[in-house]
Amino acid sequence: MNFSVVTSQFWALCLQGVALGLIYSLISLGYTMVYGVLRLINFANSEVFMVGTFSILFIQVSVLGHAVNVDPIHGIQLLGALLLSLVGAMLVCALLAMLVELVAYRRLRAHGTNRLASLISAIGTSIFLSESFRIFTHSRPQTSPRLLEKWTFGEIAGANFRIDTVMAIVASIAIFFALDQFVNRSRLGAAIRAVSMSEENSRLMGINLNRVVTLTFAIGGLTTGAAAFFYTTIYENTQFNVGFNLGIAAFTAAVLGGIGNLRGAFYGGLALGLLEQFASAILGSQWKAVTVFLVLVLVLLIKPSGIFGEAVQQTRT
Amino acid sequence: MINIRDKGAEIWETWNRPKRVAFVLISIFFAGLLPFAADWGPTSFLNTPITSFQNVLVYPVGMFILMALGLNIVVGKSGLLDLGYVAFFAIGAYSQAILSTKFGWSTWEVLPVGIVIAMFSGMLLGLPALRLRGDYLAIITLGFGEIVRIIALNSKGTGGPNGVAGIPNPPAVFGFKFDLMHPEHYFWLVLGMILLVVWMIRRFTVRRPGRAWEAIRQDEDVAALMGVNTLVYKLWSFVIGAAVGGAAGVLYASKVMVISPDMFKFDVSVLILACVVFGGIGNIWGVILGAGILAYLPDRIRFISDARQVIFGLVLIIMMNLRPDGLLPRKKREKITEKSKK
Questions:
Q1: pLDDT for residue B341
Q2: What's the pLDDT at A113?
Q3: Rounded Cα distance, A234 and B304, in Å
Q4: Where are the domains of chain A?
Q5: Residue B273 contacts A, CB cutoff 8 Å
Q6: Is B250 on the interface with A (CB under 8 A)?
Q7: CB distance A127–B309 less than 8 Å?
């Protein structure tokens, strides 16, 4: 127990918590969007994230030809490299998520069989992906090149506003804003909302169900890819099993905010990120997961639909 | 597709009592001969590289069948998704490890205590968690599984990351020695426990708890409306499932003699769940077959060492796409559309 950290590093912990939390939120969209539409846990999303981090390595090292211990680059070259990695990772993840839907969910959905069957096929996909990358990387962690020089904007009350942290926070909020607008304003967004309310009715209304489902998987993949980019720029390494812990945390975040609820995912991720930072500062990082789950249990006991609540029709499973 | 399970049930219905008893006894006899199956010429392909066939039969095959049957009570019978079943296995194993190394208890003395501890922790988890529905229960149980492992990893009493070593084997009973040289004795012990659990589940199924679970699985609201005390029966299925997991854990610890926290990771829960769904959720024979195959397969294909998990993943995907209800699906009349689907 070390409570003095909280007072001495309060703002620093907050800043790190927000950055980590937003990464969780972005990944948790991969769970929450799919759950909203299909009522299924998209178990393979954690491995989509893992593949995303590796795709960034691939783009930076193999496509752009930067060595792992490269000197930071500057100017337009840096901007190009970062944008290319971000967009590349988002596309790779979106495509992979769509592929996962096609392989693990589509046929089972057409059958109309029990939800556990799709859970197992998703688990199979997830084992397949992570084990393939384990063999491919010989179980070794991979370091990504530091293209971005980590300068800081300055220090406010002990919190170090480093460029990568600030970038992750600003860009994630922008992505969330854009997605929120898309789901609430556009025609396709309306289709997604309609399907999440009632699958049968929306089919009667002429909505192409398969297209909407593919779209939700693609959106989840896009945000997961963005999360992979921010994660790699901040932590600069990845491993075949990186998806497991982050995936569980992101799923917890989705449940915490009310699964199926887009804004809930945002706040749930933030809450979880902050909670983890403070818990590991006070109790030591090994107890982080325990604290998080205890809080989750408490939240669900007091408010079973998550802090921010699901839409009414979704509370019933 | 032909439902082998229904066909089998049809034939079974036509038999009279002596015929049934004879069939069961013969089946048990052949199951008891399994440890020697690989010694016989035509079936020697069963032999597994690295670990001997007899040991593989005990762990993972026998243990996984036992645990899959326990989990089947929770997931298959009453329809509660439990993603942290390994926690009860771990609790059983650690009870055996600590009570035997620190207090000198023998396995037979620990067994009932370990079961009670597992049941109690099942109740502790179930009381708050079972008020929640569906996927929230899944995430809470998943969390519980991780918490148990993390506590084992970070506490002094459990030996931390190194775990506990020097756990004694069970003492001999009626001249049956339980040591490294006699894996077949362990197998018979596990087989006995499996039969006990099968018998228990079959008794439950035709009596009040079984009917209550069935009602809860199909529609919890209707069940509650009809006067089923849903929380109590859900708790019972959870606690009985935990008891089976705990018993498997006690036995496992005294078989392998060394346990450490990484034996009880999330993948074990996933694997047990995969066994249940793969074989045919809710159906005892399907679960036994599924667990047998999924536990045996990775050891049999160990020669392709690195790629075996990849193949395991592929098998899961393909199987679920081809037979979403599992190898031996449950009886048709039980397959009324579950509300949880929507």
A1: 42
A2: 62
A3: 37
A4: 4-138+157-316
A5: yes
A6: no
A7: yes
Question: Taking residues B101-114, what's their average pLDDT?
Answer: 91
Which residue, A172, A276, A168, A138, is CA-closest to A232?
A168
- How sure is the predictor about B339, in pLDDT bands with cuts at 50, 70 and 90? very low
Reported as a single tens digit per residue, the pLDDT across B296-326 is 887 777 666 667 778 878 888 888 888 888 7
- 8 Å CB contact between B130 and B137: yes
A128 phi and psi, to 5 degrees?
-55, -50
Reported CATH class of domain A4-138+157-316 = mainly alpha
Query: Tokens representing B68?
Result: 């899959």
Q: Which amino acid is at A268?
A: G
User: Which uninterrupted H or E stretch holds A238?
Assistant: strand A237-238
User: Residue B60, preceding bond cis, omega within 30 degrees?
Assistant: yes
Percent of chain B with pLDDT over 90: 29
Query: How far apart (Å, rounded) are the C-alpha atoms in residues A102 and A113?
Result: 16
**A237 - beta bridge partners?**
A143
Q: Whole-angstrom Cα distance, residue A232 to residue A13? A: 20
Residue listed under structure tokens 């036995």: B251
- The Cα of B71 is separated from the nearest Cα of chain A by a number of Å equal to 13
Inter-chain touch B321–A119, beta carbons under 8 Å: no
Go through chain B and tell me how many residues it has: 342
- Whether residue A4 lies within 8 A of chain B, CB to CB, comes out as no
Compute the distance between CA of residue A78 and CA of residue A150 in angstroms, rounded to an integer.
13
How sure is the predictor about B162, in pLDDT bands with cuts at 50, 70 and 90?
Answer: confident
Q: Does B26 touch chain A (CB under 8 A)?
A: no
pLDDT for position B304: 66
Q: Residue B203: is it exposed, middle or buried by C-beta count within 10 angstroms (0-12/13-18/19+)?
A: exposed
Tokens encoding B322: 């081809």
Task: Report, in this order, helix, strand and coil percent for chain B, each rounded to 5.
Answer: 75, 0, 25
Q: Which pairing describes strands A142-143 and A237-238: parallel, antiparallel, or unpaired?
A: antiparallel
**Mutation site for A-interface testing, chosen from B72, B85, B136 by largest number of A Cβ within 10 Å:** B136
What pLDDT shows up at residue B89? 95
Asked whether the beta carbons of residue A317 and residue B153 sit closer than 8 angstroms, the reply is no
Interchain pair B324, A289: CB under 8 A: no
Give the integer Cα–Cα distance in Å for A227 and A51: 12
How far apart are the C-alpha atoms of B152 and B209, rounded to whole Å?
A: 34
Residue-averaged pLDDT of chain A: 86
- ∠ CA A47-B148-B263, nearest 5°, is 65
Strand, helix or coil at B12?
helix
Q: With the CA atoms of B133, A291, A124 and B336 taken in that order, what torsion angle do they form, in degrees rounded to the nearest 10?
A: -10
Residue of A297, A75, A80, A85 whose CA lies nearest to B137: A297
Please state which of the ranges B63-77, B174-188, B273-287 shows the lowest mean pLDDT: B174-188
* Nearest one of B279, B283, B323, B280 to B297, comparing CA atoms: B279
Tell me if B73 sits within 8 A of B244, measured CB to CB: yes
Predicted local distance difference test score (pLDDT) of residue A267: 92
- Interface check for B293 against chain A (CB to CB < 8 A): the answer is no
Q: Does B165 touch chain A (CB under 8 A)?
A: no
HSE-up of residue A219 (Cα within 13 Å, Cβ side): 25
Cα distance between residue B233 and residue B340, in whole Å: 18
Q: What is the H or E stretch that residue A152 is in?
A: strand A152-156
- For chain B, the structural domain boundaries read 51-265
Other C-beta atoms within 10 Å of A62: how many?
9
